Amino acid sequence: MTLLDYTFLWKGILSGLLISISTSLMGVFLLMKRLSLLGAGLSHAAFGGIALAILFNTDPMVFTLFYTVISGLAIQFLIERKGLPADTVISLFFSLGVALAIIILGITQNLGSNIYSYLFGSILTVSDRELLSSVLVCLFSLIFVYVYYRKLLLISFNEEIAVLRGVKVRTLNYLLIGMASANIVFAIKAVGLILASSFIAIPPMTALLVSTSFLSTLAVSVCVSFLATLVGIFLSLELDIPPSGAVILCMVILFLLFVFWRLLVSLRKRFL
C-alpha cells in the first residue's frame, strides 16, 4: 500500500487544488487594484479570529470565516468612506489580529499543536466538512468571476469609467473583498496564516510577466497556482517535508523561471 491509497491524502490534495484555483483568480483582481497586501493583512487578522474561537470554544473555521470576512469588509469601508490609504488600513488590521491572538493565547495558555497547524498549515488533515467548504468557495468564486467578469475588469482598471457605465462599483468592491476574504481563510488551512498571502500574490505576479491580455493573466495565474500546489504536495510526500513550504517554494521557483525566460526573450530581441 502506498501513501496515495489513503483517502485522507486525496481529500487534502483536492482541497488544496480547489483553493489554489479560487485564490489565484481573486489575486489577479486584487493585484490590479493594488490590494495584494490584503492577503497578508487578512491572514494575520484571521489569527485573532482563531484565538477568539478558541477562547469562546466555538468551531475555529466557521468563526474565523465570519471574522475574516467582516474584517475585509471593514477594511474596504475605511478605504472607501474615510479616504485612508489602503496599506495603512491593512497594516492596522494586521497588527490588531496578531496582538489580539498573542493576548488571548497568552491568557488561556493554549499554544499547542492546534495553533501550530494554523500558523503553518495542515493540508493533509482536511476533514469532509472542510473539503465540502473548499468546493463551495471555489465554485462560488468561479461563478462570481464568470458572472461579473466584464464589470470586475472595469473596476480593476478604472472605477470612474465603471461608474459612468452604470456599474455598481461599491457593491462589487464589497463582494470582491468578501470573496477574497473567504478564500484566504481556506488558504490558511492549506499553507498556514504566515504563507496564505502567497496564494493571493505570487501566481498573479507570475502571470503578469508573460500574459498579453487580462483573460490570459487569469488563466496563467490559475495554472501556476494549480501546478505549484500539485507538485508541492507530492514533493512533500516524497521528501517528507512540510507541504506548505513545498507549495510556496514551487510557486517562487516558477516565478523565477518566468523572470529568467522573459529576460532571455528580451535579450534575444535586443541582440538578434
UniProtKB/TrEMBL annotation:
Spans through the membrane: 12-30, 91-111, 131-149, 174-202, 214-237, 244-264
Topology of this chain in the membrane: Multi-pass membrane protein
InterPro entries from the UniProt entry: ABC_BtuC-like, ABC_TroCD
Record bears the keyword Membrane: yes
Pfam family, any one: ABC-3
Subcellular location: Cell membrane; Membrane
Keyword tags: Membrane, Transmembrane, Transmembrane helix, Transport
GO cellular component, as recorded: ATP-binding cassette (ABC) transporter complex
GO biological process: response to zinc ion; transmembrane transport
Coiled coil, from the record: none
Protein family according to the UniProt entry: Belongs to the ABC-3 integral membrane protein family.
Protein name listed in UniProt: Zinc transport system permease protein
